[in-house]
């Protein structure tokens, strides 16, 4: 039965992809058209939402939206705007699937406002009916702030031009901040490398069948020199993995399913490359299968590819700043001979009492220790353990000195002691342990 469900699920996703952008989708419709249970239809729609094929909006339902490529992910659709601002759609529902290019805040004279408003924009405006009408005629959608309704004329225009008019109870400033934040989050997400960006797809992956024998493993090994292979059953579902370690001491005719490692660690297409890399380093794995939710093999990733991708990503300039970036930007080298870093606590890094938050503190400690290790052996490092055994509150705008000292370093790991001081008084002590990654 499990087999059937999985293929049904894929069928539904394929069907959703064929629908025209803007079309409405419901659990009932899918269940009826594809002869599946409502539960199966519901799960598939949720999956389609995760894959950004559809968007669900209160009082409107689920609609097919443009599939976003990695390059233009920072373009939001009007449907997503409705979700971000908890909005109500007053008219122009048929245009919810369209993407907006930029938003304009209507806080100026009408003529100026119309000079800035173009097709594909979103005009954010209060209860100004003339402006709403002009925007629609110019090909822009409208977001009405302050919870106002609009006139029938505007609603009819919206329907005619298929441009949404959305009402939200928030004020203009809050709405602009919310949309900016969403675009910013998209930018950061866009830069996070996922497994789907680096995986070796199934058609290029050497795979063994669990009924085959070790002699077939040896043949494949000579052909490809991979050393490890995923093992599948007759339905292409992953059942194990086999490496040279499993084969030692076994005869040529022994079936693979007897010697393979069952239930191997796997990752999905949406796992971040960094998370997968750390897992592979931790567990000492060189090859990791990539599967979908139903356990079907999609391809493999190799430790080398993962580490290469992480190192490339570290050298790329970022568009969106994460909290970690903001914290790291405040850390500066003060003197190189006895490695000392200077750090200024900004208001963003404080807790409710106005002193530096524990999260910011630990990020600085990790960053300072990594800096020390980089000057020593040029290796990348991954934090394994941190013991903060002395901590005094430091208030915002303080400039602290951070001194990392390497206590012990081997080929695989390192221990770093860190002392943090403010105005010649010690305000923090910690001991960090790292795993070192071979290039």
UniProtKB/TrEMBL annotation:
Keywords assigned: CBS domain
Xref: Pfam families: 4HBT, CBS, DRTGG
Entries under SMART domains matching the protein: CBS (SM00116)
Cross-referenced InterPro entries: CBS_dom (IPR000644), CBS_dom_sf (IPR046342), Diverse_CBS-Domain (IPR051257), DRTGG (IPR010766), HotDog_dom_sf (IPR029069), Ser_kin/Pase_Hpr-like_N_sf (IPR028979), Thioestr_dom (IPR006683), WH-like_DNA-bd_sf (IPR036388)
Record carries keyword Cytoplasm: no
SUPFAM superfamilies: CBS-domain pair, HprK N-terminal domain-like, Thioesterase/thiol ester dehydrase-isomerase, Winged helix' DNA-binding domain
Name used for this protein in its record: Putative transcriptional regulator
Organism: Planomicrobium soli
């Amino acid at each position: 039965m499990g087999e059937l469900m999985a293929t049904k699920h894929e069928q539904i996703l394929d069907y959703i992809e064929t629908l025209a952008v803007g079309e409405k989708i419901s659990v009932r419709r899918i269940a009826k058209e594809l002869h599946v249970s409502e539960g199966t239809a519901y799960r598939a729609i949720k999956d389609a939402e995760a894959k950004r094929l559809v968007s669900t909006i209160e009082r409107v339902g689920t609609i097919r939206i443009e599939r976003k490529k990695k390059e233009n992910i920072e373009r939001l659709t009007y449907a997503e705007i409705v979700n971000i601002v908890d909005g109500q759609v007053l008219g122009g529902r048929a245009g919810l699937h369209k993407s907006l290019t930029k938003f304009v805040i209507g806080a100026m004279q009408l003529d100026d406002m119309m000079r800035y408003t173009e097709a594909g924009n979103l005009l954010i405006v209060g209860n100004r009916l003339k402006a709403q009408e002009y925007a629609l005629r110019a090909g822009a959608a409208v977001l009405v702030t302050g919870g106002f309704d609009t006139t029938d004329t505007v609603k009819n225009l919206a329907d005619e031009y298929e441009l949404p008019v959305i009402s939200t109870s928030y004020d203009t400033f809050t709405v602009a901040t919310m949309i900016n934040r969403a675009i910013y989050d998209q930018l950061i997400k866009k830069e996070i490398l996922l497994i789907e960006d680096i995986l070796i797809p199934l058609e290029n992956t050497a795979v063994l069948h669990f009924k085959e024998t070790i002699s077939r493993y040896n043949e494949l090994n000579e052909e490809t020199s991979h050393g490890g292979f995923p093992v599948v059953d007759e339905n292409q579902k992953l059942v194990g993995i086999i490496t040279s370690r499993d084969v030692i001491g076994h005869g040529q005719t022994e079936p693979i399913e007897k010697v393979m490692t069952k239930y191997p660690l796997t990752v999905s297409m949406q796992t971040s490359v960094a998370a997968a890399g750390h897992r592979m380093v931790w567990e000492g794995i060189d090859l990791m299968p990539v599967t979908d939710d139903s356990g079907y093999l999609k391809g493999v990733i190799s430790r080398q590819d993962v580490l290469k991708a992480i190192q490339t990503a570290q050298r790329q300039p970022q568009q969106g700043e994460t909290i970690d970036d903001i914290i790291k930007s405040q850390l500066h080298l003060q003197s190189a001979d006895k490695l000392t870093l200077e750090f200024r606590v900004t208001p963003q890094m404080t807790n409710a009492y106005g002193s530096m938050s524990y999260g910011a503190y630990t990020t600085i400690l990790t960053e300072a220790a990594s800096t020390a290790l980089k000057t020593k052996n040029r290796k990348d490092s991954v934090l394994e353990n941190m013991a903060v055994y002395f901590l005094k509150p430091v208030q915002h705008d303080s400039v602290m000195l951070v001194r990392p000292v390497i206590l012990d370093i081997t080929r695989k790991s390192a221990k770093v002691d860190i002392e943090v001081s403010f105005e010649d008084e010690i305000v923090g002590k910690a001991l960090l342990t790292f795993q070192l990654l071979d290039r």
